[in-house]
Design a protein that fits this description.
Largest sheet: 7 strands, mixed
Shape: globular
Helix content: 25-40%
Distance between the termini: 51 Å
Length: 293
């Protein structure tokens, strides 16, 4: 970010808390209050931060990344320098497209897999409720809602309820380690990156964590299917908000609800997330629409 701020051909704008460190000399900083209006305008929800947008001279968004993760750093760096040089985005940059209600979701050029490593077909002739979360159903973030998730599957047996679980490929971890060595992350985060590549790749916690999360979903939500989204490719292509988000497809595979934050509210007095009654009423109406003849 510091390096991008020194590129004369682009204007870097950071929408962040007022105490955002180290960038004010080279970046224009907008206070945090505008952040929530911006995220709301793009229907991302307040938990979508951080998000990045590349905007041309006419104010048109030419590229976006709303699910920023450390593994995106190298691509974002290539995009920024290419954009500053001639206003173009590299041809091999991941293209994200927002699924529009009333239309089929954007096509994908990769496979999704179930827990048995069998490919999953996006068109099944069955309505689908698709949920993606960085948490497990039994975590403190989602535990207040796991009864809702169970009851939804009971109330709509004709709908396939799908939990999309992020997994990480060996190649993705190799790319992340390589970038960490070149960019200095191995110095700032030695506990994670300052080790030989073979040790980094063979750390058992990644595979163990994925197996533990799959087991937790299957035990807590036995009526739900689990899809494995390798390297978050589906989440990135379809612009799933981070944290916990859902979408609904009807029996023909048409989008009824684009990826949207899960209907919950933060209760300040108790410092906990609580059920959003109005959001759930709308959710049931959308599921009724998805299964309508």
């Amino acid at each position: 970010l510091e390096e991008w701020g020194k590129i004369e051909e682009v204007t870097c704008i950071l929408v962040a808390p007022a105490d955002a460190p180290n960038l004010r000399e080279t970046w224009a900083v907008i206070d945090e209050g505008d952040l929530f209006r911006l995220l709301d305008a793009f229907a991302l929800g307040v938990d979508a931060s951080p998000a990045m947008f590349w905007v041309d001279e006419d104010g048109v968004i030419v590229h976006r990344d709303v699910s920023v993760r450390p593994k995106h750093a190298e691509q974002a760096d290539r995009i920024t320098h290419s954009f500053a040089c001639d206003g173009t985005i590299p041809d091999d940059a991941v293209c994200e497209r927002w699924p529009e209600a009333g239309a089929p979701p954007p096509s994908i050029d990769f496979d999704l897999f179930d827990v048995e490593d069998a490919p999953v077909a996006l068109s099944s002739g069955q309505a689908r409720f698709i949920l993606r979360s960085v948490y497990t159903p039994a975590s403190t973030h989602l535990f207040p809602f796991h009864h809702d998730l169970i009851e939804l599957a009971v109330a709509y047996p004709e709908v396939e309820f799908v939990w999309v679980l992020s997994t990480t490929s060996r190649q993705s971890r190799t790319d992340l380690w390589t970038y960490a060595q070149r960019s200095g992350l191995s110095t700032t985060r030695p506990d994670i990156y300052d080790m030989p590549l073979e040790v980094f790749l063979d750390t058992p916690t990644v595979a163990e964590l994925e197996a533990w999360r799959i087991s937790g979903i299957q035990q807590t939500l036995p009526r739900w299917s689990v899809w494995l989204d390798v390297d978050d490719r589906l989440a990135e292509r379809w612009l799933f908000p981070r944290d916990t988000a859902m979408m609904i497809l009807d029996r023909s595979g048409i989008v009824v609800l684009p990826p949207t934050q899960y209907p919950r509210l933060f209760d300040t007095p108790s410092s906990t997330w609580v059920r959003n009654p109005a959001g759930f009423a709308e959710l049931y109406a959308l599921l009724d629409e998805a299964i309508a003849p």
